[in-house]
Amino acid sequence: MATLVEENAGQPGLPDALTRPCWYAAYTSAQHEKKVTAELGRRSVESFLPLYSSVRRWKDRRIQLNLPLFPGYVFVHLALRDRVRVLQVPGVAKLVGFGGLPVALPDEQIETLRAGLNGQLCAEPHPFLTVGRRVRMVRGPFQGAEGILVRKKGGIRVVLSLELIMRSIAVEVDVSEVEPVLQPGRCGEKSGIGG
User: Is the N end or the C end of the chain the one with fewer CB atoms within 10 Å?
Assistant: First the structure.
């Protein structure tokens, strides 16, 4: 069976934006992310559903669940002309964008996220942040990613955000793995993380 890339490669007369595969965020119905991902796999559409492990407690038992890091979203890699293959999946509401047009996510953002999560780092959803001390990851699976430094229970975390969907995750890091990002117009910025 041909993949989406093979089906669209080199078709004359189509703009590159329609034929070049990119990552898009598919907005799903509540708690349908896993079902959507399974159906996309059956339709030979490359998808990515980042998960994290969470322990839920009831009176008589504890259960470990794998939950979506970005509730309500599944990432799909396809040429825009093939978006109907995603939009026809039950549970998919739309591809995220502006003015009715889907907007591609930067490839490096998704690849960094995939690599970081394959590195078995402890990540969990976090409220979306836009303000705070910006840092860059200089080591580890998320190397090169920028985020906002937060302190939690004596440790530090970096909050990484996907601006397009306004969602964030927090990743536990060691202080040696980050460096401050100097922001334009900020004189006297301390050079250390601990300051």
Answer: N
